[in-house]
Write a structure and sequence with these properties.
Layout (H helix, E strand, L loop, with lengths): L6 E5 L5 H9 L4 E5 L8 H8 L4 E4 L7 H7 L5 E4 L9 H6 L3 E3 L6 H16 L2 H9 L20 E5 L3 H11 L5 E5 L7 H5 L3 E3 L2 H7 L2 E4 L13 H6 L5 E4 L8 H9 L5 E4 L19 E3 L8 H19 L11
Parallel strand pairs: 1-2, 1-3, 3-4, 4-5, 6-7, 6-9, 7-8, 9-10, 10-11, 11-12
Helix pairs in contact: 2-3, 5-7
Bound molecules: glyoxylic acid.
């Protein structure tokens, strides 16, 4: 006999240990179906397993669009993504079907800001070239002129997207002696000076591109920010600029970036995000010694990923019960 009260929860990957242990113990009245392989769930499998789900706990690698929602069926109440970004979700389709969307804000701010600073310093101090030289036996005698980078002291840093992560990046970089911050975003923010602990000015994009010694991309990927950094934007930057993107690959028009790098227009580049992900190993992006690419590990600490998966579980369980999500996307 079927129990009409039971709900189905689809989880699209194995979660960090603590949260996985919770799933393995199970939740009253919930049947859990989980894709446990350590790779993104193949689309056909996703469409098949989604059928009849009341809640879906997914990752940023899983496209949530009309096709998937149709495959799931009208009983679907909640999609909970274990990410703060939700550009992989067609929000209008969820809204049209009154399906709640949960995200994991706040908990990944510190780890992602740490990664941003890591890339700023690594790019500015030519970490990739240094490490490669050591490994390849190209480390000669100490030289006063070899592998000279740049430092943050007295520099201007441009932050694109001064949300939680942007502010956390500015606070960190302030400690390295940055003289001034400029920022771009949807609107100027009140009281950021106090928060950042130094001079910070809302400027137009042109000024940000021209005046910044370091540019950090910390905004969400939206229709407005897609391909925002194209060849023209890179051409306006100082040719010593340190350009870092830890947000989403799609904010950068990658062919324009490659062209700018090829033409020696940029000082150094640090990326945690690319298009596509994973970046194919034959991508020209990987051929530039002054470009460091990380494999989208901005939030990749055990503490943060555990906090994210715990929030994702709370969101999906609340949604299945028809309750308000603790962390909805539109809070
Ligand atoms: O990129 C990571 C996230 O959006 O959580």
């Amino acid at each position: 006999m079927t129990d009409l009260q039971r709900s189905k929860l689809l989880v699209t990957r194995t979660l960090p240990q603590l949260s996985q242990a919770r799933l393995d113990k199970g939740f009253d009245g919930v049947d859990i179906v989980q894709w446990k392989e350590d790779r993104a769930i193949p689309r056909q499998e996703f469409l098949k397993l989604a059928k009849g789900a009341d809640g879906i706990l997914c990752l940023l690698t899983d496209k949530i669009d009309a096709e998937l929602l149709d495959a799931a069926g009208p009983q679907l109440k909640v999609v909970s993504t274990m990410s703060v970004g939700y550009d992989h979700v067609t929000v209008s389709e969820l809204e049209a079907r009154k399906i709640a969307l949960g995200i994991t804000p706040g908990v990944l701010t510190e780890a992602t800001a740490d990664t941003t600073v890591l890339l700023v310093l690594s790019a500015a101090r030519r970490l990739r070239e240094g490490v490669d030289a050591v490994i390849q036996g190209k480390w000669g005698t100490w030289s006063p002129t070899w592998l000279l980078g740049s430092q943050l002291t007295d520099k201007t840093v441009g932050i694109v997207g001064l949300g939680r992560i942007g502010v956390a990046v500015a606070k960190r970089l302030k400690a390295f002696g940055v003289q001034k911050f400029v920022y771009q975003g949807t609107r100027p923010k009140k009281d950021v000076e106090k928060e950042v602990g130094g001079e910070i000015e809302f400027v137009d994009m042109d000024r940000l591109l021209k005046e910044s010694d370091v540019i950090c991309v910390c905004c969400a990927l939206t229709d407005k920010t897609k391909n925002m950094f194209d060849y023209e934007a890179f051409s306006k930057m100082k040719n010593s600029v340190v350009f870092v993107n830890t947000a989403r690959g799609g904010i950068v028009e990658q062919n324009g970036l490659i062209r700018a790098l090829r033409e020696g227009k940029l000082g150094s580049v640090g990326l945690d995000v690319t298009v596509p992900e994973p970046l194919p190993t034959d991508s020209e992006l990987l051929s530039f010694p002054n470009c460091i690419v990380l494999p989208h590990i901005g939030s990749g600490t055990l503490e943060t990923r555990t906090a994210m998966s715990e929030i994702a579980i709370e969101n999906v369980l609340s949604g299945i019960k028809g309750e308000r999500l603790p962390h909805p996307h539109d809070a």
